[in-house]
Amino acid sequence: MFPEDNAQKHRLKSLLPAALHSTTMSEVTRVYAGRLAGMVVRGPETDVIGRVRDVVVNVRPAGHQSRVLGLVVEMTNKRRIFLPMLRIASIDPHEIMLVSGSVSLRAFKPRTGELTIMGDIIGAKVQVDDPDLPKIHAKPVEVADIEIERTRTRDWAISAVAVISERAKFGRRTEILIASWRHVHGITAAGVGISDAAAELLAEFEDMRPADVATALYELPESQRHSVASELDDERLADILQEMSEDRQAELLDTLGIERAAEILEEMDPDDAADLLFELDDQKADVLLELMDPEESAPVRRLMSFSPDTVGALMTTEPLILDAQTTVAEALAHAANPDLPTSLASMVFVARPPTATPTGKFLGCVHLQKLLRVPPSTLVSAALDPELPPLYADDSQETAARYFATYNLVCGPVIDNDGHLLGAVAVDDLLDHLLPDDWRDTGIRPRGEEK
Questions:
Q1: Residues in domain CBS (predicted)?
Q2: Are residues 296 and 329 in the same domain?
Q3: In the prediction, which pLDDT does 442 show?
Q4: For residue 101, what are the domain limits?
Q5: How far apart are CA 349 and CA 283, in angstroms?
Q6: Does 86 share its domain with 16?
């Protein structure tokens, strides 16, 4: 964080040339972190959230983009919270506007693999081998500021570093040089001049697919695997656990402690959480269910009530469900949610209220491709496919396989005998159960089939 007792770091910004630390914000694509310090942060209704105190980054190994994760904001009550960069709508010359006024009030605490620019990097000594700055090659130089830049994907990344090549002497001005980030050495995910295996691995895993991280974790020694898993945030670890076999899930969950294990289960998809709990002894499963938030445990309990070889045990209780008055344009916007798995985004289900499972009367469903071919103002209920039959919770897995093959789908509705939508079953979940139990451990191509 930004330590108030470190006066030297407070003075660093004043050493920079005016053009450097007063970069124009008319195009909010590039700015120095020091310029953000102290800026007012406002919600969309102009209410003041607080002021920026630091910038949190994830330093990646050479050849990978080092991302800006978010801001440390000091609220009016002096509490410091973390604000993700994707929550920022715009940066003006004197303030930062948020997409929405709701923020997490959890106190900021840096995780392993995260650094703060003002607290950890500014003022540190690094080496630079930028070909445009030959006079400072092989010399330790001091970091004065870090430039961050918005990418085409709307993420923010570190782009350049302002360094102090020589302190002022006899009235001469302190010399500031700008080096490209890729030519700056000595800063790792663990800190400046520090090497830490867990921090480096977390940085390496940052942009990897959860399935690939799951494989990589089990190539690590057991103690290191457990250390890295303990440092992953709940949502990320839940995504990774879902890509492991149930045996490995249970083994890793057992190392986390009972309370954190319950928090991880809350972040998992209900069907994956139910599968994992089936692998545990009844007493431990009951304890975890009791520790979970009741709203999160309720769908898991419903899924666990079905026989493991039925469609009911395979389905997810959180497909894309809308009411009959929703327009096609609104439905497409919901389907574009990046948090929605691809298979579930392929189908929109329509039901009478309530739209949370189990729903009111199920009216039908429509494939995403059909929605793309009708006018946006059309009500989604007018585009339903009346010929597509549903699956039932007590149908067998073979029935589900025949269903997908017959109708050329990757997702289908699951209803009860009274016509309420209970959830949806996706073809990837079906394949997961039809393949051998250890298929995730052996990879896409089992031993002997490698290319």
A1: 384-442
A2: no
A3: 76
A4: 7-188
A5: 36
A6: yes
Question: Which residues sit opposite 52 in a β-bridge?
Answer: 73
Shared-domain flag, residues 128 and 71: yes
Query: According to the model, what pLDDT value does residue 399 have?
Result: 96
pLDDT tens digits, 6-59:
444 444 444 454 433 444 444 568 899 999 999 999 988 778 889 999 999 988
Question: Taking a C-beta distance cutoff of 8 angstroms, is the pair 214, 225 a contact?
Answer: no
CA 313 – CA 310 distance, rounded (Å) = 6
Global pTM value: 0.61
The separation between the first and the last C-alpha atoms of the chain, rounded to the nearest angstrom, is 48
From the list 415, 348, 357, the residue with the least C-alpha distance to 384 is 348
pLDDT of residue 107: 87
At 244, give phi and psi (nearest 5°): -110, 160
Q: Determine the pLDDT at residue 169.
A: 62
Same domain? 262 vs 371? no
Same domain, 85 and 145: yes
User: Between the CA of residue 420 and those of 189, 271, 356, 369, 413, what are the distances in Å?
Assistant: 50, 18, 11, 25, 10
The number of beta carbons lying within 10 Å of the beta carbon of residue 406 is 9
What CATH number corresponds to the domain at position 213? 1.25.60.10
Spell out, as residue ranges, where the chain has pLDDT lower than 70.
1-28, 63, 167-172, 193-197, 446-451
- State the total domains in the chain: 3
